[in-house]
Every structure is written in structure tokens, then in C-alpha cells.
Specification:
Helix content: 25-40%
CATH topology of the largest domain: Rossmann fold
Radius of gyration: 21 Å
Distance between the termini: 13 Å
Oligomer: single chain
Largest sheet: 6 strands, mixed
Number of domains: 2
């Protein structure tokens, strides 16, 4: 159970002072990062089949930068001119500022929340007369349409991008003591890339109940769970696991 090498199924943090850097220094670990999934935009030909009229909407709800990118990509490929009157509702200030990549920020009506959809809903409810378009992934959180329906908001769900498994063939001969997953899609990618995968002594760490369930459904065992009361973050959970299992490998 002793840990020396960890693979995190996410992009490497841009900040050198990330919690993972601190975890590695504290426990003399080698931590690698590799996204197990990638996001592909829906081809415009496929989007046309949904018969969604983007310009029939007066507001757009953005929950991430990927949604922003694909909304404007599809609009451009459809040769649409988004009117200056379009209102943008963003889940966070960071996503609102990201809109500057596509529009003149100060000349648009932009609203944003504090990082949660529940908070953004308070603003959306104040604009009940708008007809909203919600660009989403094929594996989106059901919380979003559910909250909109409960508030009787007029909206159209538009799948504009999908999550697919990344090619991990270059990892076939690489062994890690622990694999870290943040989504069921990561587990799906592991199985698709390595259908003969045997867990053996490899420890698996998961974030969130859905990810843990995906591991169990794949016939594997979860060794580290986060978040918990004692370990609200993944790095804290891994650190606690290492403490309970003695020192790392030499």
C-alpha cells in the first residue's frame, strides 16, 4: 500500500504552488498529470439537426469557458451575428471576463454569480421574461435544467460539446502506485484504453460519490475517498492515506 508514484487524471496545475506540489514535497512523491478525457465540439452539421435557433433566444447561460468557446464557434460556423442586445449570465466573474475573447465587454449586458449555479439562479429569476439558451456538454449536471424548470424559466438546452476518452496508449507500460480520478468519465476512459486493466496493488482515489460509484461499477476498489469531513480536498485525503499506511516507498 505504500505510495511513491501517483498519476492524477487531470491537466497539470499552472501554479507551481498547487496543493499537489506541497503534497509531493511533504511525502517525497512523484506526481504526474495526464487528462484521461478531452472535450470535442459538436460538428455544426450535427448541431443543425437539433433545430435550435440560437437567435430566437435573448439570454445565454454559461457555466464554463468550454461552453463560451463552443457557443461562439457554432454561431460563427452558422454565420450568425449575435445581436448586441444579447444578455449573458455567467456562473462566475472569471467566466464573465472570459467573454472579452469574443465580445466588447463594456458594451454588453453581462451578469455573473459567485461560482455556484444556485447563486446565479437568483439573478436569472430577476429576468424571467428572457428566453435562455444553455450550452452544455452531453454529460452535464442535471441540477441545471432541474433548477430552471423549478423556477419556470423559459430555456433551451443545447448540447454543443461532448466529453470523450483521451488516447492513453503511451501509458501502457507505465506503472503507478495510485491513480486519482475526479469524474466517472475518467474511469470510463481507463477501461476503454485498458480493457484488461487489473487493479492488483494499485490504489484508486476518487473525488465525489458518482466517481466512487463508477469505480465500483467497473469492478474496482476505491481506496481513498474525498471529500470527507476530515479531508475536504483530494490532496488532504491522499496525505491522510499515506500517514495511515506508513512512510512512502524508498
Amino acid at each position: 500500500m505504500k505510495i511513491k508514484k501517483i498519476l492524477v487524471s487531470q491537466p497539470e496545475p499552472k501554479n507551481d504552488k498547487s496543493p499537489y506540489s506541497e503534497l509531493a514535497d511533504k511525502n517525497s512523491l512523484k506526481i504526474d498529470f495526464r487528462p484521461f478525457i478531452q472535450v470535442d465540439g459538436i460538428p455544426v452539421k450535427e448541431f443543425r439537426q437539433s433545430r435550435i435557433d440560437i437567435l430566437a433566444h435573448t439570454g445565454v447561460i454559461f457555466t464554463c469557458r468550454t461552453a463560451v468557446d463552443n457557443y461562439f464557434r457554432i454561431a460563427e460556423e452558422l454565420r450568425l451575428t449575435i445581436p448586441d442586445t444579447m444578455k449573458y449570465f455567467c456562473i462566475s466573474e472569471a467566466i464573465a471576463f472570459y467573454l472579452q475573447k469574443y465580445i466588447i465587454y463594456r458594451k454588453r449586458k453581462i451578469f455573473y454569480g459567485s461560482g455556484t449555479f444556485i447563486h446565479l439562479m437568483e439573478t436569472i429569476k430577476k429576468h424571467k421574461d428572457e428566453k435562455f439558451l444553455v450550452p452544455l456538454s452531453d454529460t452535464h449536471k442535471e441540477e441545471i435544467p432541474k433548477k430552471l424548470e423549478q423556477a419556470k424559466i423559459k430555456y433551451t438546452k443545447a448540447v454543443m460539446y461532448r466529453t470523450v476518452s483521451a488516447d492513453l496508449s503511451d501509458l501502457s507500460d507505465v506503472n503507478y502506485d495510485m491513480l486519482v480520478f475526479y469524474s466517472p468519465s475518467g474511469i470510463k476512459s481507463l477501461i476503454e484504453n485498458f480493457p484488461e486493466f487489473k487493479q492488483n496493488d494499485t490504489q484508486i482515489a476518487t473525488f465525489g460519490p458518482k466517481t466512487a460509484k463508477a469505480v465500483k461499477d467497473a469492478g474496482l476498489k476505491v481506496n481513498v475517498k474525498a471529500p470527507t469531513t476530515e479531508a475536504p480536498s483530494m490532496t488532504m485525503a491522499i496525505d491522510q492515506f499515506i500517514k495511515l499506511n506508513g512512510k512512502t516507498k524508498k
